[in-house]
Amino acid sequence: MNFNELVEMMERTDAVLRQQAARSIDRALVVRNWLLGCHIVEYEQNGLDRAQYGEQLIQRLADALSARRRRGFSYRSMQLFKRFYLTYRGNLQTASAHSHLPDASPAAIVQTPSAQLSQGLTLPNEAVLNNLAAGFALSWSHYAFLMQIADDRERRFYEIEAGRENWSLAEFKRQFNSGLYERGLCEERGLRVTLGRRWAGAPTVTATAKPAVSPVAGLLQGGATLPDNFTPSIKAGGQELNTARFRKLLEDAGYQYLNAGETGDATGKGWTECGAIDRRGHDMQLGRAGQLAEELDGIVERITELLDAGWRTVRVITDHGWLLVPGGLPKTELPGYLVESRWARCAEIRGESKVAVPKVGWSWNAAAEAAIAPDITAFVAGMAYAHGGLSVQECLIPVLTIQPGKDAAPVAARIKTVEWQRLRCRVTLETPMAGVTVDIRTKANAPDSSLASTPKETDATGQASLIIPDDEQAGAAAVVVLLDAIGNVLSKQATTIGES
After folding, report:
1. Whole-number Å distance between alpha carbons of 137 and 143
2. Is-contact 293 446, C-beta < 8 A?
3. Is 177 helix (H, G, I), strand (E, B) or coil?
């Protein structure tokens, strides 16, 4: 070893060990925050004097720890610790399952709530802390970001990918913002996906933003003043745009308007709408978060339905994004006498009134300005779901171009008959063909929605017999699907389980 090699070795050793030390410190921070959340939850459930604090517990706790000059215990931080524990409380069992301690029960990792609170809170020993830390593969910054993802399946997907690919936080955010999970939903079904981006119309409400992303945007215009419903008009004639006129413009421009379930002429151009994320967001507010995975599955199924019908390219675009804030968006005051109409995050200004909030030019006529709620606030109290403002979440929208995978098989198999004998289903193909897989699902293009005990391959006569093991499914709507060797849907037919 010469001197230069010695210098390089010293430098590498320092870098590697510093990196390991940083990881160890951050892993300890993750465990600390998990345990803090655990203490809060267990006290809420079993604290001897918990009735004195009730809903004010976390705020009172933050005040008490601040008085003791403890840092990192803000109200917001402790809300996050609590949410972290509730989301990852299963890690206590995970750590237990991998423990080499003589007593590897959850109680050995963290004492049972009743024992902790009767004896005074105690800390687990070092061996148990190390064992618990083994259940967390990411940094606290990663987990804090993961807490913003409402859907359990999506959160778990990103957690696994971030650990497997060793993503930095910046790379994690980049992958999340690129829609990796959503693209994966399509790609796992044999579809090729390309992601693009564009800006939404302003203000980001449906009446303005939907026409702006349509193929007939060039046929529309805004008036000299901002209308109270933010809707543009048609250049030829000046009529205000509505659903019927929008469809007529599409048809005149050579686009087929396809209703739900329609696939139209795949050699031409078409426009279809699916999903109800926005409408249900307004109806359900924060409860909408739990429905997003099902909504995305429905959109992917519609895309696949169109591609199966022969469309070579499906372009998916949304009109605007939205904000979803647990606890509700903070309210910004905007006096009613200053505006003609007021929505959650935007408003039409009355005449020459001066407003003390930001303004934005209307996409259909920049001279006509709308008032905009600043930051993540709203003009209406109690809104957890809202849009209409200028946040990146509302304004930057994805554009997905989806095409069949290169290995997609040609449609060669068709269903002739579907016959039920109680919960046994016999499927016969139009042309005898062995090796085609038959399944019964609630969603044609979702393998995890299968109701059959086991999908079956057709025999030499082109038949397959399947059983539905759950008798409570009798009378339920389902779909029989034929699949090729790589899982592409070749043909499908709606059915009712058990219907003779």
Report:
1. 10
2. no
3. helix
- Sequence-distant (≥ 6) Cβ neighbours of residue 442 within 8 angstroms: 449, 451, 476, 477, 478, 479
**Residue matched to tokens 């996409």:** 363
Q: Which helix (H) or strand (E) holds 130?
A: helix 126-133
Phi and psi at 360, nearest 5°, equal: -140, 145
Model confidence, pTM? 0.59
> What is the full per-residue pLDDT of the chain (500 aa) written as tens digits?
665 766 677 677 667 666 666 666 777 888 888 888 888 888 887 766 665 666 678 888 888 888 887 777 888 888 888 889 888 887 654 444 433 333 333 333 344 433 443 344 556 666 666 777 777 889 899 999 998 887 788 888 899 989 888 899 999 988 887 778 877 766 766 778 888 889 999 999 999 999 999 999 999 999 888 998 999 999 998 999 999 999 999 999 999 999 988 999 998 999 999 988 899 999 999 887 877 878 888 888 888 889 888 898 999 999 999 999 988 999 999 999 999 999 999 999 999 999 999 999 999 999 999 999 999 999 999 999 999 999 999 999 999 899 887 554 455 688 999 999 999 999 999 888 877 899 999 888 778 889 998 899 998 889 999 999 998 898 898 999 998 776 777 888 889 999 86
From CA 236, how far away is CA 364, in angstroms rounded? Answer: 15
Measured in degrees and rounded to the nearest 5, phi and psi for residue 346 equal: -150, 160
CB 307 within 8 A of CB 402: yes
Domains delineated in the chain: 3-136 (no CATH), 178-406 (no CATH), 415-496 (2.60.40)
d(CA 35, CA 194): 42
Please state, in angstroms and as integers, the Cα–Cα distance from residue 136 to each residue in 91, 186, 383, following that order: 8, 29, 34
Helix residue ranges per DSSP H, 166-239: 169-177, 180-187, 206-212
How far apart CA 137 and CA 132 sit, in angstroms, is 11
Q: Which residue's entry shows tokens 């009730």?
A: 54
Q: Please report, as a single letter, which amino acid is at residue 423.
A: L
Supply the angle between the helices 180-187 and 169-177 in degrees, to the nearest 10.
60
Residue 35 identity: L
Secondary structure letter of residue 180 according to DSSP: H
The b/e string for 291-306 (b: 16+ C-beta within 10 A; e otherwise) is: bbbebbbbbbbbbbbb
Identify whether the C-beta of residue 34 lies closer than 8 Å to the C-beta of residue 85: yes
Letter string b/e over residues 439-464, b meaning 16 or more CB atoms within 10 A of that residue's CB: bbbebbbbeebbbbeebbebeeebbb
Q: How far apart are CA 499 and CA 348, in angstroms?
A: 56
| Cβ neighbours, 10 Å, residue 418 | 19
User: Residue 281 and residue 333: Cα distance in Å, rounded?
Assistant: 23
* Paired tokens of 425: 């289903």
Q: What's the CA gap between 81 and 87, in Å, rounded? A: 10
